[in-house]
């Protein structure tokens, strides 16, 4: 049965064409909604066009608001999406540096574009996606080359100082290092957890950014830590909190994931088990002003947070 093309445009603001990536080799069975969610980890998507590419494939054109998000998306070349490894291409040179400086920040929310690329890929891993070590190592090299991690740590410390006096009064939240400003934890773009560098948990996050010698294995470790944070917030096991039983089934999960619920890199996922991790994980994705939740293939996104 032919696949109907679709176009998803979150807003009508024209985007610069250089902020575009072209994605091919997407399995026809991968839901359009999941494709959008997958690339939203990189940063704000202003437009996405998805259409059939032969009998069993899809292709997509994804336009980002900022070129930093587009360059992060290029790291996803040959990453597993659904049941196939995708091809991601664009005209940008990853070595060109145009990351935003703190002076260019708009408000106090921490956006995906400001995060080190190694952290963004750790988020992919924590959500159940499989990212190759070559991409992880390239993210580490780019973060180090452009001093992204240090600048981001400076931003966290600045925000922590700004809100420390207000948040000190919130004793219950403070015991977990979480403020009512950002209950989303891992999934919220303005997560207070990423601002609370004065708390034990916040210091662990800061340590990840401060260490400049990170390798691919360190990003896997960070992904497991993020899964543990999600477990602590949910008050249950990381396996249940991350929704992995919806994806793998209990027997499959024990073989393919570690104790924190992060996929075991040594055990490949079957096409069925990898088909739609994002749709099954109850993920908040998207943008500071347009955060959406996907809890299943037939679910409708709720109003913005």
UniProtKB/TrEMBL annotation:
Keyword terms, alphabetized: RNA-binding
Gene3D superfamilies: 3.30.70.330
Biased composition (Basic and acidic residues): 94-115
Disordered, as annotated region: 90-115, 285-305
PROSITE patterns named in the record: RRM
Record has Transferase as a keyword: no
Statement: the UniProt record of this protein carries the keyword Iron: no
A molecular function GO annotation: RNA binding
RRM domain ranges (all copies): 19-93
Protein name: Protein vip1
Source taxonomy: Eukaryota, Fungi, Dikarya, Ascomycota, Pezizomycotina
């Amino acid at each position: 049965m032919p696949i109907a093309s679709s176009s998803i445009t979150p807003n009508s603001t024209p985007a610069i064409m250089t902020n575009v990536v072209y994605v091919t080799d997407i399995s026809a069975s991968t839901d359009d909604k999941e494709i959008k969610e997958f690339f939203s980890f990189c940063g704000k998507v202003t437009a996405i066009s998805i259409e059939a590419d032969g009998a069993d494939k899809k292709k997509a054109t994804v336009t980002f608001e900022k070129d930093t998000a587009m360059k992060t998306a290029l790291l996803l070349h040959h990453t597993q999406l659904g049941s196939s490894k995708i091809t991601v291409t664009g005209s940008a040179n990853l070595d060109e540096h145009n990351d935003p400086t703190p002076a260019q920040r708009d408000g106090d929310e921490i956006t995906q574009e400001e995060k080190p690329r190694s952290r963004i890929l750790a988020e992919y891993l924590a959500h159940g996606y499989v990212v190759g070590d070559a991409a992880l190592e390239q993210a580490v090299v780019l973060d180090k080359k452009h001093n992204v991690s240090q600048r981001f740590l400076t931003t966290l410390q600045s925000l922590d100082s700004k809100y420390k006096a207000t948040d000190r009064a919130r004793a219950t939240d403070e015991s977990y290092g979480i403020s009512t400003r950002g209950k989303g934890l891992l999934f919220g773009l303005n997560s207070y957890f990423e601002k609370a560098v004065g708390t034990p948990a916040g210091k662990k996050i800061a340590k990840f950014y401060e260490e400049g010698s990170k390798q691919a294995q360190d990003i896997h470790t960070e992904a497991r830590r993020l899964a543990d944070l999600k477990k602590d917030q949910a008050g249950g096991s990381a396996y249940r909190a991350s929704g992995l039983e919806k994806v793998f089934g209990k027997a499959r999960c024990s073989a393919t994931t570690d104790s924190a619920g992060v996929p075991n890199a040594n055990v490949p996922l079957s096409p069925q088990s990898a088909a739609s991790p994002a749709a099954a994980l109850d993920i908040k994705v998207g943008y500071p002003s347009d955060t959406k939740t996907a809890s299943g293939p037939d679910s409708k996104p709720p109003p913005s947070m």
